[in-house]
Amino acid sequence: MVSVPFPDMGESRAIWWSDGDHLVVGNCTACSRVHHYPRRMCPFCHSTDTELLEVSGCATVTSYALSRSKDGLVQRVVAFVTLDVGVAMLTEIVSCKPSDIAIGLKVRVTPRGSFADDAPRFSPA
Amino acid sequence: VKSNNAAFIAGAYEHPIRKAPDKTIAQLHAEVAAGALADAGLKFEDVDGFFTAGDSPGLGPLSMAEYLGIRPRHFDATDSGGSSYIVAVNHAAHAIAAGSCDVALVTLAGKPRSGIRTVGDTAIVTDNEAPDVPYEAPFALGIVDAYALSAKRHAYEFGTTAEQMAWVKVAASVHAQHNENALLRNVVTVEEVLESPMISDPLHRLDCCVITDGGGALVIVRPEVARALQRPLVGIRGGGEAVRGVGGGHIDLVSSAGRESGREAFRQAGVTARDIKYASLYDSFTITVIVQLEDLGLCPPGQGGPFVQDGGLIARHGRLAVNTDGGGLCNNHPGNRGGMTKVVEAVRQLRGEAHPAVQVENADLALAHGTGGFLSTRHGSATVILERI
Q1: Which of B41, B185, B243, B318 could form a disulfide with B312 if both were Cys (CB 3.0 to 4.6 A apart)?
Q2: What are the pLDDT digits (tens) for B163-210?
Q3: Helices B258-269 and B286-295 meet at what angle, rounded to 10?
Q4: Using CA atoms, how far apart are residues B258 and B288, in angstroms rounded to an integer?
């Protein structure tokens, strides 16, 4: 895992990716703990020595909700996934039949650029 | 009961209306304020403390103090979503104890059923400056989804079933049949809950609270004022409040800040969960009640499902009478904020003014608890413990 500096744009928009297109989480060099979402001040020790940590993108489904449209069809799967570095993030599970999703399912982040809004989704590993 | 209450709830009022397209939100605030003051036997001129929250239009207490024609020397607009009014009870007790006011008015009003400030099946919309928004908005997390994330995890960790969750709704409906103002008065079965449309698995439509117009108000006074009035004495014995989010990515989906708010309220009150005769628990969704029962120690951790099943929450029959007005699931959830009605029904129970079919015998100690915001992502919990003197 490679650490990268906090971006120059700061918190002015969502920080999901490194310049090398790896998924990132917040990391504190003072207390060595990772956090999500990334922020300028560590939520645990309150140091401002925070940076970003590139992570593998491998994760496990912690919980999920099958959000249905008025006709009863699953329109979206919203989930908390826990990354292999131990922090959870809210995301959407894609490319997976709703009946195949389960807590504990191994998932992997979809490549940057897969979606117009830059936010990472996950699909079964 | 040995008591040294700093403040008393002298007036409590729930607006009977459930749809009010022709009234303004300000007007509803005025109507519930008048109702609670009349219940207490006090007048608008007596009010010197004012507590309202994000449901108040305009600049909150500034706009509403003018509309109501009151001149508070203490005001508070703390907003924690639906639990705000339980926070307000706690804050009003503090303000009275500090000598900042003598007669505190707490008001809530809203009209989402008429389409004003509606929430429900749409994505959660908040301030774009909120730090969490960029990390949640892309996934269009809806309110039901947020609670479904907790419900699904609770089922995974503790084996809580959809049938058990449905029992929370069944109990509410059994109570609501006796409430002539309840939006939904029909008694439903577990099967009917499970057969209702799935909104966000595992939550069905009947696992969700109603959307209603209306509101409610409380009048909280110092002991000398309370003792001079012709109303039963309902003392505020303890209170607590707490906030939880996603813990920097270290989430806990199966418990709430109610653990912390409840612990503080019980500490202040000097009583235990076993002493509680009646509980008003926020029922935004059926899962919310199950989580709160556990967090408050009203049942063992992880055992909320077995506790509520087979009518566990039905007055006079179950393990603990909960939400005897029919709760947010059947009676009322005015302005999408259920904390006010939680306190109002607890006051009715302590006064012996609940419907005879659901009145708890010897109801001398009650708890009202709320979870405002969203169970899985961020919420504010508030607990008050009330006693009949």
Answers
A1: B318
A2: 999 999 999 999 999 999 999 999 999 999 999 999 999 999 999 999
A3: 50
A4: 11
Q: For the whole model, what pTM was predicted?
A: 0.96
CB contact under 8 A, B131 and A11: yes
Coil, strand or helix at A28: strand
Cα B290 from Cα B344, distance rounded (Å): 21
Take residue B69 and report the two structure tokens written for it: 């024609």
Residue written as tokens 């008694």? B187
B261 close to B383: Cβ distance less than 8 angstroms: yes
Tell whether B128 is within 8 A of chain A (Cβ).
Answer: no
Q: Residue B116: CB partners within 8 Å, gap ≥ 6? A: B25, B110
pLDDT of amino acid B116: 74
Which of A63, A84, A94 to probe the B interface (max B CBs under 10 A)? Answer: A63
Instruction: List phi, psi (to 5°) of B372.
Output: -100, 150
User: Position of tokens 């209702």?
Assistant: B196
Q: Are B198 and A65 in contact (CB < 8 Å)?
A: no
Which of B1, B11, B14 has the alpha carbon at shortest distance from B323?
B14
Question: Measured between alpha carbons, how far is residue A82 from residues A79, A104, A108, B288, B363 in Å?
Answer: 10, 10, 11, 23, 45
Query: What ipTM does this complex have?
Result: 0.97
